[in-house]
Amino acid sequence: MMRPWRKRYHELYLKLRSEFDSHVIQWIAEKEEMIVSAPLSFGFLKHELSGVRKFKSGKLRILYVLSEEKPDIWDVPPEEPEIMFLYVDLRRDETYKEALKLLRKHGIVQ
What we know:
Elements: E1 6-9, H1 11-18, H2 22-37, E2 53-57, E3 60-66, E4 82-90, H3 95-105
Parallel strand pairs: 1-4
Antiparallel strand pairs: 2-3, 3-4
């Protein structure tokens, strides 16, 4: 039986998500549940963001990591599998460049 994934939110993710209106936040929450139900279904980003997975749905982009794939993100490795949501935004030409810049600034990637 597959163990359930626990959700964890990086402070950057929470800040970015809070900038949307309540309807968009609800839509994002629905997509988070889709990710939690099948976190391995969505592919990895490459290069500097290796180990970071991306969820794409229409205009929405969510970047996240799994504790079993990128344990160095956690200060203390969790006992249960966890998903850490890192970045959320609506698709633009600069989405991934902006994500990389912010994730570097917050010490998530190098």
